[in-house]
């Protein structure tokens, strides 16, 4: 749909005024795009976190209600302080995929990816931003990535950035103190150029918007943010970026000099990635990020420093255990991931969102974190919603699907939601929550899980 004539006139006036002030054409065009935008739309970020091998369902359920939603869940108990911002989706099956190959279907919805790209890439393309792919993916010497190791497909299968320092350099290259070339994200480059605007140019642009109030135009808010940051302000206002320089990242710095593919360093690498991601989401230098933990056949020994203390291979025997003792160890390993997510990610995101005009909204409120896996139960190795018999009793299993955050108000969190459908429908739901509605993925019709919506 084309914008109304009045909006086109305003954009044209803004563009010409900016060019007349000598502002570079890319920044002038950016200003024109935001001149008539309503600031009421809340910013939304997407983070996908992949944890392999499913989970032992008897250590995930039963669930409670309200603040006690996750109190009885061994695996998800670390999320208890964020129960009001967590949604557990039960009943999802993998679309047409089976067992190990399901990693390639996790974010595409099709075995081996089919004709579809991963949902993170599709969403990022629609938003005009970069889809960042990071990975804590160590392997034993002599092993490594194979055909069933790749999680993300952006035209071709993507091997994730393994070094947290390289990921941080990419996230913060446009900020003072950053390293390397500016990221390919046009928004990040424009933000850097916007911060170079002179006070005369800022005054001139405010004058060009004299017939609009700060409540009516997102550009006016952005210009005030630029002025605020240039003045060295650290709080208040509605900043375009919350960071005017590269943030201090001790967990990232702790990986300096380490072999990031050495299994002994897995805990340090994961913490570094989570810290960098959290800072990038808060700073506004990234909007769509995927984090891959290991790969589908990874036999990583979980006795590494800082880990859960299970000195056995995560894939086999830990995730493949049928006996009670082994499944308890599996629960301890999967719980450890959520402990790190809370410690290095959620604790940072649970702060007022500098990109939101409402000070009551946190970055976490405006973020959609999707924690997923490629199988339902590690031992049973099923990728659907089906029963698993444990100690002579049936237990309903399903693909792990934990949503953390409010997706900018799109989600109604703080509950367990039963659905009937495939991960393809769940991917469509994530896309809709990010403001990119789709009616088909890879040529297959999809429907969103409306019961998740606020």
Can you tell me the overall shape?
globular
CATH class descriptor: Alpha Beta
Instruction: Determine the number of helices (DSSP H or I, runs of at least 4 residues).
Output: 12
Strand order of the largest sheet: 3-6-1-9-12-2-13
How many angstroms does the end-to-end distance come to?
Answer: 26 Å
Structural class: alpha/beta
Total tally of structural domains: 1
Helix content: 25-40%
Write down the overall mean pLDDT: 85
Order of helices and strands: HHEEHEEEHHHHHHEEEHHEEEEEHEE
Strand content: 5-15%
Q: Can you count the beta strands?
A: 15
Any idea what the CATH architecture is? 3-Layer(aba) Sandwich
CATH topology heading: Alkaline Phosphatase, subunit A
**Could you name the ranges where pLDDT drops below 50 across 5 or more consecutive residues?**
179-188, 232-240
Rg of Cα set:
23 Å
Largest sheet: 7 strands, mixed
List the helices and strands and how they pair.
Blueprint: H1 5-20, H2 25-34, E1 45-50, E2 86-93, H3 119-127, E3 131-136, E4 152-154, E5 156-158, H4 164-172, H5 186-194, H6 199-208, H7 218-230, H8 250-253, H9 266-283, E6 288-293, E7 301-302, E8 310-313, H10 314-318, H11 324-349, E9 367-372, E10 387-390, E11 393-396, E12 401-404, E13 415-422, H12 423-433, E14 440-441, E15 444-445
Parallel strand pairs: 1-6, 1-9, 2-13, 3-6
Antiparallel strand pairs: 2-12, 4-5, 7-8, 9-12, 10-11, 14-15
Helix pairs in contact: 1-2, 1-6, 3-12, 4-9, 6-7, 9-11
